């Protein structure tokens, strides 16, 4: 292996809670790390582990408004109930709790460190599982996200004139990252997600293609509910890979949310862990400096399995199809009967597949007619 792969991790990633009834369970970070250890991936040759720093106020203010940061910090200093709905803070979706601000800064710092490892530290690729907060706007929390780690982390690179491709594979549209770069040609954003017609964040339609200098640099592939691996693979091969090659970026950054898996409780897609491995290997094969961040995923064992397979693909480490025996008792605390690291193959029903194929074909025709010529495709 010519250059190391960096895993950015801290035990504090799992040290807080959104509340027992909230779908976002931070235990997924600990579970992922433990599964990686049981699979022999934490000390695999050619890999390093690094601790994340806390993102500084100066770094955060490169994207986030000071008044929003002031409120987020103040709300994080006590345990009592507090809310400011103008900033999206304190509702059921985005609760506030003691220590939230510093915890969010640590998650954001993880992505900053992953980027540093790739651009300055000599690493071929880096993974920060606690990143991927793609719904956080400059002055509003949204979708369980408080600080937009990717947008914050990219600011110095963009100031240096570098070009970036951001690919978002989360089941939900990467709306706030798209919004941040919607008028820029310096970042090409590509998001494959469940159609927003009746699904949060109700955006990410194929017609959203950027504005001004950014026209043609925001790409969306909204998938119909029940899209499976065959649909996802087509979208990836026909949209993501050609656009990355045509754009010729200095850096590739990808959001690898695990909620496109078919057993996720919040989405209606029907993909398997095979798509996580397929995408990871394809990203690595581009030869580009690559930073991967986490994202969504609301079945904890799904997340642990998917991101363990992602890290294995990033490092080239072999892993068996079954969960390590020593990990099975812990896995069964979350999923009774759990035995598999990789999902069995799965296809959508014929009716669902036909609807999904028709929806994808419509998207592809639009992109091929309106966007691809702009990139000489």
From TrEMBL:
Q: Where is the Histone deacetylase domain?
A: 22-313
Against Gene3D superfamilies, the record matches this protein to: Histone deacetylase domain
Record-level GO BP terms = acetoin catabolic process; epigenetic regulation of gene expression
Q: Does the keyword DNA damage apply?
A: no
| Pathway in which this enzyme or protein is active | Ketone degradation; acetoin degradation
Under the GO molecular function aspect, what terms does this record hold? histone deacetylase activity; hydrolase activity
Q: Provide this UniProt record's keywords sorted from A to Z.
A: Acetoin catabolism, Hydrolase
The residues forming a coiled coil are none
InterPro entries from the xrefs? AcuC, HDAC_I/II, HDACs, His_deacetylse_dom, His_deacetylse_dom_sf, Ureohydrolase_dom_sf
What's a Pfam family in this record? Hist_deacetyl
Matching entries from CDD domains are given as: HDAC_AcuC_like (cd09994)
Q: Which family does it belong to?
A: Belongs to the histone deacetylase family.
Which protein, by its recorded name, is this?
Acetoin utilization protein AcuC
């Amino acid at each position: 292996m010519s250059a190391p792969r960096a895993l950015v991790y801290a035990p504090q990633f799992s040290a807080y809670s959104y509340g027992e009834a909230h779908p976002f369970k931070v235990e997924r970070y600990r579970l992922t790390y433990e599964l990686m250890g049981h699979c022999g991936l934490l000390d695999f040759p050619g890999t390093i582990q690094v601790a994340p720093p806390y993102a500084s106020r100066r770094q955060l203010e490169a994207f986030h408004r000071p008044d929003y940061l002031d409120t987020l910090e103040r709300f994080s200093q006590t345990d009592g109930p507090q809310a400011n709905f103008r900033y999206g803070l304190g509702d059921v979706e985005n609760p506030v709790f003691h220590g939230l601000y510093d915890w969010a800064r640590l998650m954001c710092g993880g992505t900053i460190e992953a980027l540093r490892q790739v651009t300055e530290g000599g690493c071929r690729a880096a993974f920060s599982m606690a990143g991927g907060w793609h719904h956080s706007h400059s002055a509003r929390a949204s979708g369980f996200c408080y600080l937009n780690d990717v947008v914050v982390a990219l600011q110095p690179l963009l100031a240096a004139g570098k070009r970036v491709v951001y690919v978002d594979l989360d089941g939900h549209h990467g709306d706030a990252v798209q919004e941040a770069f919607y008028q820029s040609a310096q970042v090409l954003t590509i998001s494959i997600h469940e159609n927003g017609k009746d699904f949060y964040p109700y955006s990410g339609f194929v017609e959203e293609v950027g504005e001004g200098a950014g026209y043609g640099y925001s790409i969306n592939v909204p998938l119909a509910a029940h899209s499976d691996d065959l649909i996802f693979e087509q979208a990836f091969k026909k949209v993501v890979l050609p656009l990355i090659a045509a754009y010729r970026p200095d850096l590739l950054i990808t959001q690898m949310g695990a909620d496109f898996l078919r057993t996720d409780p919040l989405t209606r897609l029907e993909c398997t862990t095979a798509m996580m491995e397929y995408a990871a290997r394809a990203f690595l094969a581009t030869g580009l400096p690559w930073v991967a961040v986490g994202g969504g995923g609301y079945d904890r064992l799904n997340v642990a399995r998917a991101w363990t397979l992602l890290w294995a693909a990033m490092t080239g480490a072999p892993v068996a199809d079954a969960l390590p025996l020593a990990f099975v008792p812990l896995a069964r605390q979350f999923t009774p009967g759990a035995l598999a690291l990789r999902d069995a193959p799965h296809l959508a029903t014929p009716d669902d597949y036909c609807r999904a194929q028709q929806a994808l074909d419509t998207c592809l025709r639009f992109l091929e007619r309106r966007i691809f010529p702009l990139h000489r495709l």
